[in-house]
Amino acid sequence: MRAWIGFLVVLGVALAQRPVEIPFWHTAGPPGQEPLEEMIREFNARQREYRVVPSFVGDYREGGLKLLAALRSGGAPVLFHAELSFLGRMAQDNVAVPLDEYLSGIPNDFYPSFLEAGRFRGRTYGLPIGLSVPVFFYNADQFAARGLNPPRTWEEVVQAAQRLTTRAAKGYTLSSDIYSFNVLVMSRGGRIVDAQGRPDFTNPKVVESLEFLQDMVRKNIAQSRNIAEAQFSVADFLRTKTFMGIAPITMWPLIESRAPIPFRLGVAAVPRVEGGKVPLAGGALVVLRGASEAQVRGAVAFWRYLMEPTNIARWVRATYYMPMRRAAQAQLEDFYREDPRRRVAFAQVEHADVWLQDPEFTIWYSYLEDALERALKGNANARQVLEEAQRRALAVERR
Prior knowledge:
Layout: H1 2-17, E1 20-26, H2 33-46, E2 50-56, H3 60-73, E3 79-83, H4 84-92, E4 119-120, E5 123-124, E6 127-132, E7 134-139, H5 140-145, H6 154-164, E8 172-175, H7 178-187, H8 204-218, E9 222-225, H9 230-238, E10 244-248, H10 251-256, E11 265-268, E12 278-287, H11 293-306, H12 309-319, H13 333-338, H14 340-346, E13 352-354, H15 361-376, H16 382-397
Helix pairs in contact: 15-16
C-alpha cells in the first residue's frame, strides 16, 4: 500500500512538472521557417512551464483553409499564425481569444500602429510577429544608363517609365491585386476603406489612383498583371522585360537568393505624398477558443520571447520583416551598414499604417480585384467599375 501511495505521489509530482503543451500552426516558410523554429526550441529549453509544438501548414492561404477545416471537424491548434486580413473574421466569429488582460507590462517602444495591427474593435486578438511594408524595386543599371534617379513621386514614375519603355520592354509593371493597388492609394493619401473600416471604393483618391494606372497602360508604358500572373511579373523583371515595380519588402531576400540577377537591383522607398502612408501587411499569433488559461499565458509568454530585441533582429535579418521595437534597431546597425538600400527601405517604418481590418474582406476583396482587372486589362471606365464593386461590397456588409 505504501509503495502504491508513493508511486501516486511521484506520478503527481511528475505530472505537475510536465510543461503545458501549446500546439502551434505557423505559416512561416523559407527563409523565416528556420529562425522561427529555432526560437521555438530556445523558448522551450529556457523554461519548464510551457512547450510550444510547431507545425508548418503552408502559406497564409493554405494555413487559413486548413484551420477552417479543423474548426469544423476538430483538431484545431491552440495557437495559429494568421494573416492580418483574416484576423477580423476570426474575432467576429468568436474564434480568437481577446488578449488585452495578458499584456500588462509590455515595452512601450513598439512602432506606431504595429500593435494596432493585431486589434479589432478596440480589443487585441492578434500578437503581430511579422509585419512588412512595400518597397519600390527597379533596374539600377537601366536607370544609370538613362541618367535617372529613383522616383520620389508617382509623376516621376511616369516620366521614368516613358524613358525606359522600348519596343521589347515596358517601363513599369503594375498588378491588379488589392494589395498592390492599395499601396498606390495609401501612398497618395487615400484609403480603400472608410473610418469605420468599410469599403470606400468610390472615394475620389481611389478613383484617381485607378485612373492614374489606367493612363499608364493606355500610354503603353506599363504592363498590367493580375494576381494569378504574379510569378510572371517577377520573371519579366528579372529578364529585363520590365524595369520597375512595387512588391512587399519580404520579396527582397527571395529575389536575391535566386540565380544571379543580370543587373544591379535597385531598392527605394515607395513614392509618397506628404501625409501618405505605406500599408502594413503580414501575420500575427492568434490564440483559439478552447485554449486553457495556462495555454493562453504560455502563448503570450512565447510572443514576449519573440519580441526580445535580439530575437527581433535575428528575424529581421532572415525575413526582412519590419523591426517591431525601437530597441532592436541598435542590433541592426551592421545590417543596415552592410547595404545602404536596407536603411532607406526600412526607414518607411515611420510612415507605416494598418490598411485593413474589415472581417468581410475575405468576401469583397474579389469584387475590387475584378474591377481593377476590367479597368486595366479591359479598358472599362474606372469610376463605373469601382461603383459597381462598391455596391456589391456594401451588400455583403449589410448581411
